[in-house]
Amino acid sequence: MFITFEGIDFCGKSTQVEILKSYLIQKNKNVHLIREPGGTEISEKIREILLDKKNNAMVMETEIFLFSASRAQLVREVIRPYLKKGYFVISDRFHDSSTAYQGYGRGLPVETIMKINNLAIGETVPDLTFFIDIPIDVSIRRKNKKTHNDLDRIEISDSSFFERVRNGYLELAKSEKRFRVLDGTQPIEIVSELIVSEILKYESPK
Q: Are strands 2-6 and 128-133 parallel, antiparallel or unpaired?
């Protein structure tokens, strides 16, 4: 299976990715974990450019093409080969992040973003996508616990940007059947239990 996790910054998705990985390994499953942007030598170099706060002059068109370039490399070099070998591939973000962040967040035409996404990933679409939803004020509260130096170029964006991103994810969830929306304000254990139950339902449909 190819499983992706989405959400605005500080929603807790990275924590859930690690919990799911541990669960699947305990069940004797082969698991490969990836993050976006990144996951290959080329993609990690692109990640450095994208998240460096010094690159605040980056225009949104450059941003979407860099994210997509990193993703195209990751799909062909890592995701497809591991899926062919029967692995569970779990990604901390994937193409829905570009639709939400660069489309709804930055204001680029969503239809254009989706065409770029299609070129980057082809038929490699996730089986399940978990959107861990939190209110903006919760995200801000969690962000304020970090120092400015700990934040990347996108994390320092203002709250109105993240509100648009969140609304974008909610719009995607309405149209994409693979989306599962989870309340990220619930205890970590509850969220992880819901994730596992959804995977079991997917693997054993009634």
A: parallel
**Angle formed by the axes of helices 60-74 and 110-121, nearest 10°:** 30
Structure tokens at 123: 């038929």
Cβ atoms of residues 140 and 151 within 8 Å? no
- The beta strand positions in 64-178, using DSSP E, are 88-92, 128-133
Fold of 2-203: Rossmann fold (3.40.50)
Q: What are phi and psi of 131, to 5 degrees?
A: -100, 110
Write down the pLDDT at residue 206.
Answer: 60
Indicate the domain borders of the chain: 2-203
Residues in the chain, pLDDT under 50: none
Q: Which two tokens stand for residue 156?
A: 């320092």
- For tokens 């924590």, the residue is 15
